[in-house]
């Protein structure tokens, strides 16, 4: 991977979920970078304990600003889901939890469009950046 090769030999920290790419373990061995143990962006943003707490409240699908920005590409274009298939696939969830990290404004029109597509109620939850900030600080300390 060219971007990682450019950093080879440096004390690299990669903020990327440990299971977000099928080649992640191979790249980690090859390029010797440190990364969070969390499997995905939701874990990186929330932490496991907070994620479990939210999941205990209701069967939850998590949505970040990035996912909201690209949902059509992900679900309609890549997975080929029309509205009916989306309703079937999202039907197991009781809610969609939009994680508002406070970095960008909440696009309520896009949230409404996603709700219409999935048929699942959306809750906005402010989550801040405390967990990801702590993760980065821990990873940098081990340089």
Gist of the model:
This protein has helices at 2-6, 24-31, 41-46, 48-57, 65-78, 83-90, 108-118, 130-141, and strands at 60-63, 95-100, 122-126. With 143 residues, the chain is mainly alpha-helical.
What does this structure look like?
This protein is mainly α. The protein has 2 domains: 2-40 and 131-141, no CATH class; 41-128, no CATH class. It is built from 8 helices and 3 strands. The protein has helices spanning 2-6, 24-31, 41-46, 48-57, 65-78, 83-90, 108-118, 130-141; strands at 60-63, 95-100, 122-126. It has a 3-stranded parallel sheet, with helices on both faces. The longest helix is centred in the middle third of the chain and has 14 residues, at 65-78. The model has no long low-confidence stretch (mean pLDDT 85).
Attribute tags:
single chain; 143 residues; mainly alpha; 2 domains; 3-stranded parallel beta sheet; 10% strand; globular
């Amino acid at each position: 991977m060219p971007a990682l090769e450019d950093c080879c030999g440096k004390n690299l920290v990669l903020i990327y979920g440990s299971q977000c790419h099928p080649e992640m373990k191979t790249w980690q061995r090859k390029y010797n970078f440190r990364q969070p143990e969390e499997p995905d962006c939701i874990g990186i943003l929330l932490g496991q304990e907070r994620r479990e707490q939210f999941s205990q409240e209701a069967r939850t699908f998590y949505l970040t600003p990035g996912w909201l920005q690209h949902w059509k590409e992900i679900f309609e274009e890549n997975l080929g889901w029309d509205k009916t298939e989306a309703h079937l696939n999202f039907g197991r969830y009781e809610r969609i939890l939009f994680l508002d990290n406070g970095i960008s404004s909440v696009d309520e029109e896009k949230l409404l469009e996603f709700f219409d597509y999935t048929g699942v109620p959306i809750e906005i939850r402010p989550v801040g950046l405390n967990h990801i900030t702590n993760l980065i600080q821990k990873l940098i300390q081990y340089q």
